[in-house]
Predict the structure.
Amino acid sequence: MKKNPVLVASAAALVALGLSACSSPASGDSSAQPEGASNVCPNGKIRMGILPYEDPDKLEPAYQVLAAALSKKLDCPVEVSITEDYAAEVLAMENDQLEIAQFGPLGFVFASQRADAIPMVSFGDADGKPTTYTGGIWVPNDSPIKTLEDLKGHTLALGSPGSTSGDALPMSALTDAGIVDEVTADYAGGHPEALLALVNGTVDAAQINSQTLATATAKGTFDETKFRQVWKSKDIPNDPVTVRGNLPQEFQKTVTDALLSLDTADVEKVSAFLGVKNAGPLIPVTKDTYQPLFDLAKIMGLTEKDV
């Protein structure tokens, strides 16, 4: 993959452990506590990490609603932190700086390997069924690029290192098409930034997943009628909320039960960012839910260094 100096790569933050300052704890009360909740707050708070898949200033209010509801269930403040990037979140959990965290599907693979992250729940629809999203590559309507193979010799904006839909899947598609070394691709710094690079005309194509597409279309920052999708991935299971594996089983079970008991209203603002239509409550997931991502990482030879 050729590098394009026009776009800003974020891989330098690999060793960063710092969390963003926009976070604050959500206080709670003891109403409707799951059994064992009184033993879940030994250090006075629970730290929850969120990957920066959207502008942190927009993500933070939505997650504060979820955190406040969870705080009430557990009678323990839940402190939300939007991490600097995918790598920072994995490393924060590995270094016992997070008790629970929402990872992207591929980020979870690395978090599972490095921090023993255990998936608890993900985002369901109104029928309680699992939800998914898709990766995509988009070009302007008047572009000569009609197919994935036509990207040869052109520029492509990716999202962030370690992103499922913004890095691994489009790169896998380019590899399968045999043109990975003939596309000038680089990281824009995130999903919104990749979309903006395409809208501003600084690249020939950009990865835009269905989550980012829904958010940008709703905000009026992306006019879908002016662009075309030339590649679409298979369905990807939505992000898991995980717990650190070295925590007591009682803690893991109590937090899982509390998350599963949250009302739809507590999670629907977050679900909206994840492209969930007709949002429902959180639903249970297991490591097996994300086995296709473990398989992808193995096939492509990906390790945490690729984050």
About this structure: The first helix runs from residue 56 to 74. The mean pLDDT is 88.
